[in-house]
Amino acid sequence: MKISPNHTSRNHHFQDLMLHRVHDILLVASPYDAFILEEDGRLTEQILHEYLGMNLSYAPRVWQANTASYAMDLLSRRSVDLVIVMMRISDMDIITFGTQVKEQYKNKPIILLAFDESEIKQLPEDRDKFMDNVFVWSGNASVFPAIIKHIEDTKNVKRDIRKGDVRSIIYIEDTPRYYSSILPLIYKETLFHTKQLIDKSLNNTQRLLHMRGRPKVLLAQDYEKAERYFKYYKNNVLGIISDIRFPKNGKLHSNAGILFAKYVHSIERSMPILLLSNEKSFSSKGSLFSHGDLCFSNMILSEAEDSILFIDPRGGDSFRTPYYDLAKISHSLLGGYDHIINNKASICFNSDMTAFLDFDMNKDKSVKDLFNSFLESGDYKPEIVALVQVSLFLSMLPLHIDDTKKVYMLALRASELISGIKDTKIDE
User: Fold this and answer.
1) Average pLDDT value for residue range 393-417
2) For 257-290, how does the pLDDT look when each residue is reduced to its tens digit (9 = 90+)?
3) At what angle do helices 382-395 and 322-333 cross, to 10 degrees?
């Protein structure tokens, strides 16, 4: 059988990636903490199970030490790629232990695995001097592959992008509890989609080599690190997932995520950005990334995948009040815009000869009630949505000046919406 030179070179290309791998882990934990971690089975078996679930070909070995002195002894005798330490160890505090490890093994990554954020609050602000990062154990062993992949990606990203032009995803989050839960999900999705993209004609060995080319996930916990990642790797960034509130210039900044998104879009307008927040204030007030033209004609329903695809975004690099996109949806859903444009609406007259617009959706009150219920659940005001919707109808008049009937319908609908807003006080 003759193998093409190109095919062979591609395999060598992937073989050069992921030079730094985590093969041996040292877990430093008290007997009680180790028992909690292994409640559902041996830790090595749990990690192996998670690795198999993520379609990874190998799982690291875990060596355990229940005292700091024994941990230092193991480090002197074994080649350990990663140290995971719990807060409670009997013969030494975590700061002293981390400092000793860093002094003797400068490039050895140390991760603190905490049970809750109250333990993290006990640490000094300069914790970067004696550990590399902090994760939170929430009872799910998937955090271990996430820790391992995080360390590997951090060590390999520069070389792999240079050697193999691999892609990356920047994830910005400063709260350990959140990134400890979300990172495992990002890695699972990334590995799943990488596997789907691999040529089915390849054999198992070739597929495993190609998996090394999966996108790196770069965790940034402040604005400056995220900015550095983007500057260094912007040509290889697939997208950005970001919290809204995180440190900037050494202080917690309430809109850092929005500022970073604006910075990125000033350089690369087409960069996909997902902003995350668990606070209602960011969704109902503030400026958020906008689609810009969220009407029915820009939505495609995929019944096979049970999803909606949004197309033709006009927002681009725009950040604006969410009321604009909400009004656009209402424009189509309740306002009758699509009915007017597609000649599905008609002008009717009451007994007193006042005109009104008649279209199918206008007769179904349950749709309006459902939409208003959605608005109220997100702390949005239906009256403000209606007022923005009026401005949208009026802005459409010049675009349809060649069709007198449509112009009259759009103006009539705007008038109806205005009359439906009673005693509205806008204080935003």
Assistant:
1) 87
2) 989 998 998 898 888 888 887 765 555 444 555 6
3) 70
- The answer to whether 150 and 179 are in contact (CB under 8 A) is no
Dig out the tokens for 323 from the structure: 């009321």
E strand or H helix that includes residue 261: helix 256-267
Task: Give the strands of the sheet with 216-220, arranged side by side.
Answer: 216-220, 168-172, 237-243, 273-276
What is the DSSP track for 41-95?
Answer: S-HHHHHHHHHHHTT-S---EEEEESSHHHHHHHHHHS--SEEEE-S--TTS-HH
Query: What distances in angstroms separate CA 401 from CA 389, 407, 410, one per listed residue?
Result: 19, 6, 11
Query: At CA 310, angle to CA 414 and CA 269, rounded to 5?
Result: 100
Burial of 52 (0-12, 13-18, 19+ CB in 10 A): exposed
- The one-character DSSP state at 248 is E
H-helix or E-strand spanning residue 112: strand 110-114
Round to whole Å and give the CA distance between 161 and 167.
7
d(CA 98, CA 89): 12
Please measure the distance between the N-terminal and C-terminal CA atoms of the chain and give it in whole angstroms: 73
The runs of H, that is alpha helices, within 250-364 are 256-267, 280-284, 322-333, 337-341
Calpha distance 56→209 (Å, rounded): 11
Residue 28 has, within 13 A of its CA and on its CB side, a CA count of 28
Do residues 230 and 266 make contact, with C-beta atoms less than 8 angstroms apart? no
* Cα angle value 132/137/142 (rounded, 5°): 90
∠ CA 177-183-186, rounded to 5°: 145
| Contact residues for 1 (Cβ-Cβ < 8 A; gap 6+) | none
Angle at the Cα of 172 from the Cα atoms of 217 and 183, rounded to 5 degrees: 45
For the residues 402-427, what does the mean pLDDT come to? 78
Q: Which two tokens stand for residue 182?
A: 């979300």
Q: Looking at this protein, which amino acid is placed at residue 122?
A: Q
pTM of the model: 0.68
- Phi/psi of residue 130, each to 5°? -125, 5
Distance CA 369, CA 371 (A): 6
Residue owning tokens 């990134």:
179
Q: Where are any strands of DSSP class E within 350-428?
A: 355-358
The pLDDT of 160-170, averaged and rounded, is: 92
Give the strand pairing for 246-248 and 251-253. antiparallel
Distance separating alpha carbons of residues 60 and 71, to the nearest angstrom = 18
CA dist 377 and 375 (Å) reads 5
